[in-house]
Amino acid sequence: MSSAIGIFGGTFDPIHYGHLRAALEVRNALNLARLNLVPAGDPPHRKPPFATAAQRVAMIELALPEFPQLGLDTREIGRSGKSYTVDTLRELRNEHPQRPLVLVVGVDAFAGLPSWHRWLEIPDLAHIVVVTRPGGSLEGTLTGPLAEQWRNRHRENPVYLETTAAGAMFALAVTPQPISATAIREALAQGPSGVARIRGLLPDAVLTYIDLHQLYRPRPDAP
Fold first, then answer.
1. Is the full-model pTM beyond 0.85?
2. Which domains are seen in the chain, by residue range?
3. CA contacts within 13 A on the Cβ side of 103
4. 15-40, pLDDT tens digit by residue?
5. How many other β-carbons are positioned within 10 Å of the β-carbon of residue 94?
6. Phi and psi for 67 in degrees, rounded to 5?
7. Which helix (H) or strand (E) holds 101?
């Protein structure tokens, strides 16, 4: 077992099997000591989440018993201001000066990395694993400074993620999970018929919590 700690961020609004299964597959493929889900408090690149921070954390906690190999890190929820990944990684690096850290991102998020706050500091704080579809390739799809970073830091052998604390970029193909939080929210807004369509896309405990708190439903004053 590697000593590496994985970080998988997102709004998780709500958490669903697409998040959970992909995270577990990454953890197992890279033999990580643990992989923590890190819900964003105030995401800088998108609209505020629909559910509150406390509700999103509660849903993750309800989902994790099905995935005991995964963990939860709420530091971004507890931190004031925008949830910048570089700040999270710097905190973790201070806590674990020599331990490998692995930031897990999707292809779209990685392509947008140059728009992230102090993005050039990120590879020096953690390895970056880009989750791709089987048969997919990043070669030729990246441009500008990000393409240069990829050329200089790309490694084929994941063992490199275990033997150094940070600095590598690695692509990992995982099983496609065609589940969307947006589609789940849209279905929930349609009431019982929508709920029936999404059953099985997220843990039953999470769906029960959503129903109990009437999350993602139209506001009473909505037309």
1. yes
2. 5-173 (3.40.50.620), 181-213 (no CATH)
3. 29
4. 999 999 999 999 999 999 999 999 99
5. 9
6. -135, 65
7. strand 101-106
